[in-house]
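I have been asked to look over a protein record a colleague put together. Alongside the sequence sits a line of tokens, each denoting a local backbone shape. Please read both lines and tell me whether the tokens look consistent with the sequence. I do not need a full report, just your reasoning and any doubts. I have pasted the whole thing underneath without changing anything.
>
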Amino acid sequence: MTAETAAKTARPRRSVLYMPGSNARALEKAKSLAADALILDLEDAVAPDMKAAAREQVCRAVKAGGYGRRELIVRVNGLETPWGVEDVAAAAQAGPDAVLLPKVESAAQVQQAEKLLGQHGAPERTRIWCMMETPKGILHAEEIAAASARLGVLVMGTSDLVKDLNAQHTPLRLPVITALGLCLLAARAYGLGILDGVYLDLDDEAGFEAACRQGLELGFDGKTLIHPKQLDAANRVFAPTPEQVAQAHKIIAAFDEAARQGKAVVLVDGKLVENLHVEQAKKLAALAAAIEAMQAT
């Protein structure tokens, strides 16, 4: 991977905040929040009698813009519901960065959404994101991840998953660790992004930060959030530290110098550095640059 390729593909998703699509004030406030991405929700956050109005409001907000570099994702209702197909059609015409499908359990669901997006003129850049939140969805994670070239991100829905498993929310999340691992494997195998699930206790700041750190260690790109008060911790935990960025640039420079001398490996601070370490360093440096660019706007 070249530094140029890493820079083009880097997109911060440290903090991805759910916003109720029926709340116009919240949609406006989101323009000033320090979130890397916003999920404008037409599903769980919207009552049945407000679905059509919320759809119109969200699509109008997407078209109007004003959200800077933040990624905009519209979470639609399931395609089997009375609102899902119209949600996808309207979102396609609004042209968000992605459409998030709830409770995905098969490749066929992804492909149906892909077809609808194409029929209704969605821009090529509009990706499909998938909520992974049911036992069947987890068991089919690999086929879902391979379902479409439009697929961009898997999103863990751990609240629904814990409910369906008849499990419990615990600090170490052992009841869902297998599900998290299977989805991480599927996402990375097919070059997708992947986001950790929400943390429900807004008063437990220490617990939330610990969950963020666990997600980072497992390999998630960031965390989905239910309240703006969670933004600072998520942005801090999932961002490279200044020391990590400096070390990444050091590795890249040392390896480039070694390559000019015809060497395939090099020692940096007494540690052997190979091409795989350089790829990791380039990804980290590109992510840091993308975060800096976002903060500058």
